[in-house]
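Section 5: illustrative case.
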């Protein structure tokens, strides 16, 4: 049976959550394979409107098993709060439909604090972190200075391990940042408050996935953030601290032998970017405000206004290549309906020359957008459900993007609701 990954092609917030929510009807298992509570996937369905940060977007489908894989930063505190929010709206979350990898590392209380302290130290050179502790978490993970979720099941070993890490971490907190040290008592209280709550959900998810694969179950891998925020392939250092690309899904999910048959890349019909870093196609002033309002471009986690601009074909083509996308979901086409003409960032100008290639991060800030325009359609398309019912100008826009980025666009969404989608 085929497996599928749903990934973001650009800077994130492309609408991955809504695509996972839609496509989970064809899958048995949904796995988050990297990242933590720093992004927000918005899902609107008959159960309500949800901003998911850590929970996989398959949580709304009965019979779907959702997994937080070993590559995820498990923040017990945020996860527990999110679970309570979802449960309060009538969505069941039980050890049957949510499983946390025993090999996933735990985001510890000091990670969030260190994130804020470092952004403060950087002042006007800050990375624009969401301050959820993700960068300190992943650096500690790779330094082997955090604990695995499964250690919660072995308290004696957990305390011994945490004691060693605490001693090391307090050196940084006190000597580098002048912050208050943590104590074992504070850690024990934190484990009692939050670690205990997620304990029933922790298991060997690798074994579960292997059995699911052997039993012919269909697995969907859900990315967090987009290609351009990938640690290795993105706009470093304005990236996240893990790998968002589809190639990482087998490793971060706990099924390293998995073959991914379909990679659905989610692209927004225009561009948005939250936080710092070069964003070549960026618009400013009234033009940007209008697009931001039309697309409600405010961060799901932080409420920060997102930076916006026209679709960036250079960055999108690069994102498609990094992901190895086999199919594209183009979202929020309805948002462009107010425009007389639709601007497109078709190329970049760098060192006096026009280029189609996405530049190396260090020189990216020098790139300038080369815009062209396409005719607009100027009518409400949010009720359209068939390709042939879209105005010709809208079809031309989609086909032009498809040709420019070199990948088939199989889905076009025209509204946030689950059914507001055109299958081509
Ligand atoms: P994700 O992190 O990639 O899942 O994306 P976000 O949830 O941060 O942002 C996508 C936003 O756009 C959410 O508020 C969605 O409800 C909304 N959205 C998704 N698809 C469409 C669409 O086709 N049209 C409109 N108007 N909104 C959409």
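Designed sequence:
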């Amino acid at each position: 049976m085929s497996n599928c990954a749903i990934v973001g092609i650009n800077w994130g917030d492309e609408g991955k959550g809504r695509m996972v929510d839609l496509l989970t009807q064809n899958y048995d298992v949904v796995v988050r394979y990297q990242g933590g509570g720093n992004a927000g996937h918005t899902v609107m369905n008959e159960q309500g409107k949800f901003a998911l940060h850590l929970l996989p977007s398959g949580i709304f489908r009965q019979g779907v098993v959702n997994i937080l894989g070993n590559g995820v930063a498990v923040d017990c505190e945020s996860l527990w709060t999110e679970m309570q929010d979802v449960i309060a709206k009538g969505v069941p979350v039980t050890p049957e439909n949510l499983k946390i990898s025993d090999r996933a590392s735990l985001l510890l209380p000091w990670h969030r604090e260190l994130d804020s302290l470092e952004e403060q130290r950087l002042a006007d050179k800050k990375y624009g972190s969401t301050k959820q502790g993700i960068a300190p978490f992943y650096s500690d993970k790779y330094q082997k200075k955090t604990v695995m979720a499964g250690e919660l099941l072995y308290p004696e070993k957990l305390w011994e391990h945490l004691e060693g890490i605490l001693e090391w971490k307090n050196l940084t907190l006190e000597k580098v940042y002048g912050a208050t040290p943590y104590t074992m008592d504070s850690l024990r209280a934190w484990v009692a408050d939050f670690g205990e709550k997620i304990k029933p959900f922790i298991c060997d998810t690798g074994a579960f996935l292997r059995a699911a694969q052997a039993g012919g179950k269909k697995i969907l891998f859900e990315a967090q953030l987009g290609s351009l925020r990938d640690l290795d392939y993105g706009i470093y250092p304005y990236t996240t601290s893990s790998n968002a690309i589809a190639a990482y899904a087998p490793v971060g999910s706990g099924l390293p032998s998995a073959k991914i048959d379909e990679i659905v890349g989610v692209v927004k019909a225009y561009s948005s970017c939250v936080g710092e870093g070069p964003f070549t196609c960026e618009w400013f002033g009234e033009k940007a405000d209008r697009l931001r309002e039309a697309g409600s471009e405010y961060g799901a986690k932080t409420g920060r206004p997102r930076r916006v601009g026209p679709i960036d074909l250079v960055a999108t083509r690069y994102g498609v290549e990094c992901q190895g996308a086999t199919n594209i979901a183009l979202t929020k086409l309805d948002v462009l309906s107010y425009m007389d003409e639709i601007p497109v960032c078709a190329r970049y100008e760098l060192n006096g020359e026009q280029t189609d290639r996405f530049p190396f991060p260090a020189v990216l800030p020098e790139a300038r957008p080369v815009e062209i325009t396409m005719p607009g359609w100027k009518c409400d398309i949010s009720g359209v459900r068939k390709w042939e019912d879209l105005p010709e100008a809208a079809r031309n826009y989609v086909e032009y993007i498809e040709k420019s980025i070199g990948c088939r666009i199989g889905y076009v969404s025209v509204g946030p609701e689950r059914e507001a989608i055109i299958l081509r």
